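JOB MANIFEST
job_type = single_chain_structure
chain_count = 1
residues = 103
[input]
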Amino acid sequence: MIRRRKLGILVPSSNITMEYEMPMMAPPGVSFHFSRIPQTEDTEEQLEAMIEYVPEKSNLLAHAKVDAIAFGCTGRSSCSHYPRTILGVLVEVLSREWVMIKK
């Protein structure tokens, strides 16, 4: 099998489905690489605190030279009133680090 794409996914530490289910849905040649962010409860405080781990954990995924990084947490995506977004943090991190790591 030829590897076409490597996808990095940030998941909550309590998530037990994404690492199992995502590869079953992938076309041939697509691999998934996961990094966990601490989260043990679905509280607004923990969901908000997860964003602080995004730079470190996405940087670790970038070391694996993944082609893209996604945030696999439906709970956080519903909290749109927070001033900083996961996408914004990923853009900050990747704009500083991605080019150096991908070379």
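[summary]
The first strand starts at residue 5 and ends at 12.
The CA atoms of residues 11 and 17 lie 10 Å apart.
exit_status = 0
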